[in-house]
Specification:
The protein has a two-stranded antiparallel ribbon. The chain contains twelve helices and two strands. Helix 3 packs antiparallel against helix 4, helix 4 crosses helix 7 and helix 9 runs parallel beside helix 11. It is elongated, with a radius of gyration of 26 Å. It is mainly α.
């Protein structure tokens, strides 16, 4: 973003989002050789991680537990990688979204509606902090066993054969040099992928909540006219009242259309990855149930059980939040429609009534996150995924 655009995007609500985007080489507009090299390095690391995971999958011999353990990291790698490539390929759209957020803060800087933006931005900031803590804690649990064994090996507590990697890859275990190289590569990959995930996921939360805030601003402007009936309907000058009424409805129409355009930008940016995210979510749910069945059986040790439990809680929470934000966008869009239907219609002029009818018809087209308008992210889709994945997981669990 330009320095002018950073006046509001660099406030306390988006500090962590800015910091995370800079870590993945995106925030600044300036394209330098250092930035290009840095982005190429991140791409190289992600490609190495994906190829490594695919290679190991082909080496497995059908052990469901080993396949589930590998898919746990493979799906996350593919998911995070697709988010990063979507950001690179649709970077211009994301910059438009960020400029629009900055523009909204500037336009509402001296108005009461700014409190609505601050309320939702504060929720976004808290979610960002929570995600940073949660994701890096997961990294800690993923890295700690291998790091502990490595320290024990240095002090002679364990032998070389007891060393492990965060993600199983036997090719690195053939000799000590290969192991050290594999350990460094996997630690680097895990940290980079986690940072990419946090940056994309927290920005997704920020833009969706900003859209919800804009819908609330529309509702506030609609209701604002009818809070004091004396001033609005019993003025001394009828022409002044009609002029004021016309300015009110035209302002709402223009602002509402700009909100729709902002939501369309969000949909345009995320539509390319929505199908991948849906597919990954279904398989991740299956793994969650598979692990849950194992936890109910008394064949899992405490450390492994805790790791699997944290994975279940974390993955389900992240996926649910994704669908919940889609549902929240639908609810806020419907809220505008319900508010328009409650306007004292016949107390307004004929011209205003026509514009309100136009708004009501437009608001019946619910804003949502979807893939090609068919797969809509909502609580209903989340429930369907829960049911379908449970059925598949029970079948695979009974096969072992």
């Amino acid at each position: 973003m330009s320095s002018k655009g950073e006046d509001y995007l660099d406030n306390e609500y988006y500090t962590y989002n800015r910091w995370l985007f800079r870590l993945i080489g995106f925030w600044e507009d300036k394209t330098s050789s250092k930035k290009l090299i840095y982005v190429c390095f991140l791409n190289f690391i992600i490609i190495i991680a994906v190829l490594e995971q695919i290679y190991v999958i082909f080496l497995l011999k059908g052990e469901l537990n080993a396949i589930a353990k590998l898919l746990e990291t493979t799906l996350i790698t593919l998911c995070f990688g697709s988010c990063y490539y979507n950001l690179l390929s649709n970077g211009a759209i994301m910059k438009k979204i960020l400029r629009r957020i900055d523009s909204d803060w500037k336009k509402l800087a001296d108005k009461q509606e700014l409190l609505i933006l601050k309320e939702y931005a504060n929720i976004s900031r808290m979610c960002t902090i929570g995600n940073i803590i949660s994701f890096y804690l997961y990294i800690g649990f993923l890295i700690f066993p291998s790091f502990q064994r490595f320290i024990q090996y240095i002090f002679g507590v364990v032998s070389y054969n007891e060393l492990i990697l965060p993600v199983r890859f036997d090719h690195f275990m053939k000799n000590r040099v290969g192991y050290y190289l594999g350990l460094c590569i996997q630690y680097t990959v895990i940290i980079i992928l986690c940072t990419v995930a946090i940056a994309n996921y927290t920005m997704f939360i920020a833009v969706i909540l900003h859209a919800c805030a804009l819908f609330n601003v529309v509702v506030w402007r609609i209701n604002g006219r009818f809070k004091d009936n004396r001033n609005n309907f019993y003025g001394k000058n009828k022409n002044d009242k009609l002029l004021n009424e016309n300015e009110w409805i035209v302002d709402i129409v223009k602002f509402y259309e700009s909100v729709i355009e902002f939501v369309d930008l969000i949909k345009l940016f995320y539509e390319a990855t929505n199908l991948f995210e849906v597919s990954f979510a279904l398989v991740i749910f299956m793994i969650d149930y598979f692990y849950l069945f194992q936890l109910f059986s008394a064949n899992v040790n405490k450390n492994e059980g805790l790791t699997k439990l944290l994975y279940i809680i974390g993955s389900m929470s992240v996926i649910f939040a994704y669908f919940h934000l889609g549902q929240k966008l639908i609810d806020q869009s419907n809220y505008v429609f319900l508010t328009l239907c409650q306007i004292p219609f016949y107390s307004l002029s004929l011209k205003t009534q026509k514009l309100i009818l136009f708004l009501i018809m437009r608001s019946t087209m619910v804003c949502n996150l979807s893939w090609k308008g068919t797969i809509v992210f909502s609580h209903n889709l989340f429930t369907v995924f829960i049911q379908k994945s449970l059925s598949f997981a029970m079948v695979f669990y009974n096969l072992q």
